[in-house]
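B., you asked whether I could sanity-check this one before it goes into the benchmark set. Here's the sequence:
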Amino acid sequence: MKDSFAELLKTRRSIRKYKTTAIEKHKLDMCLEAARLAPSACNAQPWKFITLSEPEQVAAFSAEVFGGVYAMTAFARKAPVLVAVVADKGNIVSWVGNQVRNTAFSLIDIGIACENFVLQAHELGLGTCIIGWFNEKNAAKYLKCPSGRKVELLISVGYPDENPEPRPRKKLEDISSQNFY
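And here's what the prediction gave me:
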């Protein structure tokens, strides 16, 4: 358990090497609950999280989505759990907002929900990596997603078998200002 939110943020890393230890269902449920509680534009909650935790399922799914040009994310094949994040239909108010602002609010919402998921996982001692490079058509077909639904992201989950150094971050003054750009 992390001592503070600041420590949680400072110590979370994208993990690409996992132990073979199975993930306890209650821990995975806590991560999904954290995602469920994420805010979203117009409270649309435009997401569905599909969990693959059986080794045979993870292997079969991985074979469909991490081959060929997507091989650079094949590290996820060794994760005990893969979570597919599917864009679900939002509500009419959020759809109108998307059109007026030309902003895909549902993608922002999904990002917030995923961040909640991975921060909760880190607090529980789990490692994660949010993956955007995979064969999305094969993923949707494998998962039997309804027409019009898209697998936007995958999250690999497991107990870390590595402790990566922090990546360089820009200075605060390089990413913020007051009053004007």
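One thing to flag: The domain at 16-163 is CATH 3.40.109.10 (NADH Oxidase). Otherwise nothing jumped out at me.
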